[in-house]
Description:
Elements: H1 2-27, H2 49-52, H3 55-62, H4 67-73, E1 80-88, E2 93-104, E3 110-119, E4 125-133, E5 142-154, E6 159-174, E7 179-188, E8 196-206, E9 211-222, E10 226-236
Antiparallel strand pairs: 1-2, 1-10, 2-3, 3-4, 4-5, 5-6, 6-7, 7-8, 8-9, 9-10
Amino acid sequence: xxxxxxxxxxxxxxxxxxxxxxxxxxxxxxxxxxxxxxxxxxxxxxxxxxxxxxxxxxxxxxxxxxxxxxxxxxxxxxxxxxxxxxxxxxxxxxxxxxxxxxxxxxxxxxxxxxxxxxxxxxxxxxxxxxxxxxxxxxxxxxxxxxxxxxxxxxxxxxxxxxxxxxxxxxxxxxxxxxxxxxxxxxxxxxxxxxxxxxxxxxxxxxxxxxxxxxxxxxxxxxxxxxxxxxxxxxxxxx
Length: 238
């Protein structure tokens, strides 16, 4: 009997507790509940019309860009137009250098380069073009590019035309063309009796935002003769 009364007492206490809990919830104001934070709009920042209409802000409103990915894809080097002076120490023959380096083909990793070199005395002439493909993203500080092209090479000892194959190692010391070092190893008519090996080291640094100076050292290795060319070149970056 006592147990039956105890059970009834517990049931009554539970009902009373539930009733008061219901009253407490019903009497709580709705505005006391946590509210989501309002979205901050550009108008709340009191921005000027120029900033409000900027393409960068409009793009960020649509989607926050992946900055790290853009830095990786954005080229760390630039297209260069070249004009300079060259010297062949073995014969003291001097000449002119004209060229263009790394003209980008769309948004791909392909670039096109071309050059023309001629000695003032007419003993040496070189011209041709290369197609390069950079294996790493263009924004990398270290990159490698296999190349294929055509080259005409004429000296006082020999003259030849042929396919040029090779590779280029590029070390970026400072982005956007401020400073870099490149080493290019290539062969003209590789695997034939007229094969010529070319090794070119180029060190470049900017003196203004669009102009820089490049020092080129090139070794030309033919079966019957060897030669060296040294150049001081001005490069304009459009």
